[in-house]
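Reopening this one. Same input as before:
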Amino acid sequence: PQRTPALSDLRRLPGLVRGRGIGSDHTDLAVPVPERVEVINLPLVPPVLGAPLLNDPIIERLAATFRKRSSRILWITYTPAPAMLKLLRAVKPATSAYVCVHNYRATPGINQAVVESEQQIAEEVDEVFCDSKFLHQAWSRRLSRPVRRLMPACDPGAFRRALRGDEVQTRRVIGFFGGSFKELDLEIYRRAADLGYEVRFIGPFDHDVKKHFNRELDWRPPVEPENLPEAIRDIDILLLAYRKSLRNDGVLPAKFFECLATGKPLLISPLPDMEDYGEVVTTVDSPQSLEECLADLPRVETTTRVEKRLMIAAEASWDRRLDDFIKDLKMLRS
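Same output, byte for byte:
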């Protein structure tokens, strides 16, 4: 709902309204679809004038189709726009939850209709979960009932393979993997390059980002999740430097526990959640502090620190996170 449909989306609109093609188009997915999982792609338009005229027939058809099937879980990963509020009401699930991972109220240019519908969704579902401490505190103030945490997860065993053991001694390559490059504090990365470090980004290419660098930037294309540990193995230091903003205050990076699972030195912006991880990460808030932190790494990066990172990552495994989530949902059902 945050984008205008592409022409290929609009071509599918008549079939979706009539109920054909729902859940059959997986061609744009970067990873294989697991067994017993059906992916439903809907060409919904943003919440602008005329959106209900286009969206409502699709929502009604999807809700009717879902109610006829034997599916037990409908997982909606769209923005909490008005169309999603309508879908939630149309499906009428036995149990519902909203998982908030984004500070929409502080997002520049956000449609106010999204902010309003998010509040309504949060009030109507049975449970609200938040990933970051900031969002958890914010929603705890907005709602008259408890709000739970659902933090990002990782595959500890897979990312542990990225650890070489000589990262601190080598200290040559500083890297970042993922997307959201426009939310990064590029001045900090540029300072790393000016200090002579090789700066490597793994993710979708962005010309606007690359032009910030005086030196050549090693930019590599995205890789499938199972290949990511190998792709970051020769990175010595992971750097997650985000711009200072109210929006980013609500961020707990989805990759945070994956970074911990590598055991590698992790330099990160002083996001609110980092108050709980001071023993295993180094916070960087400016280009000047980056230089100081890099010089101090041989002193602070002890074997104990590496082991603590790996231990925290092990506790954030997908199995443990999912078990906790399912327990919470079962408590709602009971």
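So the earlier flakiness isn't reproducible anymore. For the record, The CA atoms of residues 95 and 329 lie 8 Å apart.
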